[in-house]
Amino acid sequence: MSAPPSILVNRDGAVGVIELARPDKFNCLSLEVHGAIAAALDEFEAPGSGIRAALIRAQGKHFCTGADLDEVKKLRSSPADIEHFIRYGHSVLQRLEASELPVVAACQGLALAGGSELMMACDVIFASSDFRIGDQHAQYGLVPGWGGSQRLPRIVGVRRALDLLYSARWIDAPTALAWGLVNYVVEPGKLAEASMAYCVQLASRSRPGLAAMKRLARQGLDRPLPEGLVFEQDLISRELLNDDVTEGLAAFETRRPPVFRS
């Protein structure tokens, strides 16, 4: 009998859904899981797919508690294999950030270590009120391997980030919301509905328009402000000529909802 899939990929209208499906292992991340996420993004972004937003969610009690340590133990016997494990995980999370689609995460229970790194690579985060996030690497002599040391300080500031990394403590949903780690906190029973409703709303927007916004925010973040403003001017000068802008302006003039085709 073959093993069950590590993730499930489906769609709800124009929303592509990636569902972590290893609840028995708290949805830990392996090479297989990362490969499946990358393949799903390829599918969602393919011309003619009709997908306009992506949602990452998880089965079971917890969103994701980190890397698959059984796999890590096996790979440590080969420096080349462990380097591939780290670099491939990095490439997939960078792929989420670079995707032309808005990527939303719905997180329940725990997001720890690699799970928090996966979450931080997404664009908008919904969390259940029972959600907790932390990084336990220091507790076991480890260090973040999939961008946690870089994304966390950029989101919450260096002092808060180092406190979380040094102490290995968990913070709750209200604190994560106050620190900007998540965007919305909802009751556990409403997490699936609220995150999907948000994705459906995004899917009604102009796909190239949202892609341009994401590109400007992501790629402009580490540029000096004057350079970022030039980046915005150059990109918007091109975007204002696309068909969705024509439709949007026509809808505004006739006081109707726009229907974007791109």
Automatic annotation (TrEMBL):
A molecular-function term among this protein's GO annotations: catalytic activity
An example Gene Ontology biological process: fatty acid beta-oxidation
InterPro entries, A to Z: ClpP/crotonase-like_dom_sf (IPR029045), Enoyl-CoA_hydra/iso (IPR001753)
PANTHER family attached to this UniProt entry: ENOYL-COA HYDRATASE, MITOCHONDRIAL (PTHR11941:SF54), ENOYL-COA HYDRATASE-RELATED (PTHR11941)
Protein name, entry field: Enoyl-CoA hydratase/isomerase family protein
Species this protein is from: Ramlibacter albus
